[in-house]
Write a structure and sequence with these properties.
With 418 residues, the chain is an alpha/beta fold. The chain folds into two domains: 154 residues, Lyase, Ornithine Decarboxylase, Chain A, domain 1 (Beta Barrel); 181 residues, TIM Barrel (Alpha-Beta Barrel). Helix 2 packs parallel to helix 9, helix 3 crosses helix 4 and helix 8 runs parallel beside helix 9. The longest helix has 20 residues.
Length: 418
């Protein structure tokens, strides 16, 4: 496949995903539907491997970004670089295990793990990232009752501003995530007291998503390395990893090209090289990319219902893609027959049928001709936090998901009604 035909693109006869025409997808499965390019996914996986070449890294894919079973299985089977998975619920843990991820390469994060979820992770020897003292006590009690030794990491809150959207920042004191300085000391003391049931395997931090300020990420990484040194010096031996989190950015419509994954890999190299202890320098590196892996691989395929003044009404909505309504996110949208947005021409808002004024998928889009009924369009950069955040609001069915491999398309999730 030539580079210009990688993922979503125009040809003389319409919109394509890899070597599958999107009109054929629409005829087979109707719209709205999610379509994923496996070629684009492979491109991202290969680029990640090159960026972290010669580093002792375990990338743990953040399944909350996209939990499509075919995508999970594809990442789990990556041969060029073994991948693990980051999960935030028992449902994601079970999906990861079903997809082929090894329990030893899975991380369970989240501020509100229920007892049953903790029990599941302990039984499968999955590392739990501890985010509170009450959670630590719950893990100790469950491990004791099960006569197990739970493997844990400590997720710390470094109070670093990631300079990203307020709704996706996670590393400030005002955020609910992670342990602050005083709580870290209490947690470390408690771990030493209960070492029969708890094994501290690593230290973790995650300061937010869509981080375009690499300097903020460097500060957090440096803080994490220094803390790891201090923990090792305080009697906690046998640490296995430092989990630097994720937040690697992708470019959405109207944004400048963000820093590449290579810049974040270099920040980790530099931070770990500054460790005081040789043991810290040699720890396995864990990172948790999600959006960066899958965003560009996915598109939301939709059809025009009609045009009213400056509104183009399509059959996709905020129930399929809530990011524009929730985060004011701007996704590129391409109409079949419009190879590029017009510099001149009529200006439209692309809206859905949901009974909410916030059901706007794109604003101020210039097109060189009026869209027609049933005309196809694809909303790009929708592979992350698209289907996973979809809802049945207005009793709308969840959209089907279709995976494209070269010139083949496969339905991986059916349209789901309540």
């Amino acid at each position: 496949m030539t580079p210009e035909h990688l993922g979503f693109h125009h040809r003389h006869d319409g919109l394509w995903c890899d070597d599958v025409r999107l009109a054929d997808v629409a005829r087979a499965f109707e719209t709205p539907c999610y379509v994923y390019s496996m070629a684009r996914l492979n491109f991202q996986l290969d680029r990640f491997g090159r960026a972290f070449k010669n580093m002792n890294v375990l990338p743990c894919y953040a399944a909350k970004a996209n939990n499509n079973p075919a995508i999970l299985s594809h990442i789990a089977a990556c041969s060029s670089l073994p991948w693990g998975m980051d999960a935030v619920s028992a449902g994601e843990l079970k999906a990861g295990l079903a997809a082929g991820f090894s329990p030893g390469r899975m991380i369970f994060s989240g501020v509100g793990k229920k007892d049953a979820e903790i029990e599941f992770a302990v039984e499968h020897d999955i590392v739990l990232n501890v985010e509170s003292l009450f959670e630590l006590e719950g893990i100790i009690a469950i491990a004791k009752s099960r006569r197990k030794r739970a493997r844990i990491g400590l997720r710390v809150n470094p109070d670093v501003d990631a300079h990203t959207h307020p709704k996706i920042t996670t590393g400030k004191k005002k955020n609910k995530f992670g342990l602050s300085g005083s709580m870290i000391e209490l947690a470390l003391k408690r771990i030493l007291e209960t070492g029969e049931f708890i094994r501290l395997c690593g230290v973790s931090a995650h300061i937010g998503s869509q981080i375009t300020d690499v300097s903020a990420w460097r500060i957090a990484a440096g803080h994490l390395v220094q803390l790891t040194d201090s923990i090792s010096e305080s009697g906690h031996e046998g640490l296995e990893f430092i989990d630097f989190g994720g937040g690697f950015p992708v470019r959405y419509e109207g944004e400048t090209e963000p820093p590449g994954i290579e810049a974040f890999a270099n920040a980790i190299r530099d931070a770990q090289a500054c460790a005081r202890l040789a043991s810290t320098k040699n720890l396995r590196i864990i990172v948790e990319p999600g959006r960066w892996v899958v965003a560009e691989s996915g598109g939301l395929l939709t059809s025009v219902i009609g045009v009213k003044e400056h509104f183009v009404v399509v059959d996709a909505s905020m129930t399929e893609l809530i990011r524009p309504a929730l985060y004011e996110a701007r996704h590129e949208i391409v109409f079949e027959g419009h190879h590029e947005l017009a510099a001149q021409g009529d200006c439209f808002d692309i809206v859905g049928p949901v009974c909410e004024s916030s059901d706007v998928l794109a604003q101020d889009i210039r097109l060189n001709s009026f869209p027609k009924k049933n005309q196809l369009a694809v909303i790009l950069q929708a592979g992350a936090y698209g289907f996973t955040m979809a809802s049945h609001y207005n009793l709308r069915p969840l959209p089907p998901e279709i995976v494209v491999k070269q010139d083949l398309m496969a339905l991986t999730r059916h349209r789901q009604n309540l």
